[in-house]
Amino acid sequence: LDLSNCSLNSVPPGLAEATAAIVLDLTENPLTTLPNGSFLGFIHLQSLAVPLTLECPGGRDAWQDVTVDRSSRLCQGQRNPCNTSVELAWPCPENSVCAPDGPGLTQCLCDSPFHGYKCLREGTFPLLLFGGILGIATVSLSLLLWGTQRRKAKTP
């Protein structure tokens, strides 16, 4: 994705939809900062060129190789932050596993069959029980209202 020399003052909002990008060029733009969530979901990004005034997103540790030339900074080889010897700032809860979510970003995914808040619920959602109770409550309330309100209806 070549966005070089596009007179961008900030990261375009549509960039969030380009998470499948492997190479991204933002050089020759008057960018002053890269907001923290700009590259959320960019797990396939392997080469990013930014103006010299900006650092690589996630810092030097998020990339295998950072090279600087006269007008740009090239960040290559995105590292998996889950495979480092440095302990994560927010370790994943029990029953979950760390997964990369962009340069220097991580997410915790629940192991199967766990789900829900902090991966504490086991099994699947009780869809039949939920649907049955909801259906019975709806029919009961409808019959009750029909029975109590029909006498107030005007007869022709």
Automatic annotation (TrEMBL):
<keyword id="KW-0472">Membrane</keyword>
<feature type="transmembrane region" description="Helical">
    <location>
        <begin position="125"/>
        <end position="146"/>
    </location>
</feature>
<protein>
    <submittedName>
        <fullName>ARAID factor</fullName>
    </submittedName>
</protein>
<keyword id="KW-0812">Transmembrane</keyword>
<dbReference type="GO" id="GO:0045669">
    <property type="term" value="P:positive regulation of osteoblast differentiation"/>
</dbReference>
<keyword id="KW-1133">Transmembrane helix</keyword>
<dbReference type="InterPro" id="IPR000742">
    <property type="entry name" value="EGF"/>
</dbReference>
<feature type="domain" description="EGF-like">
    <location>
        <begin position="108"/>
        <end position="119"/>
    </location>
</feature>
<dbReference type="InterPro" id="IPR042350">
    <property type="entry name" value="ATRAID"/>
</dbReference>
<dbReference type="InterPro" id="IPR032675">
    <property type="entry name" value="LRR_dom_sf"/>
</dbReference>
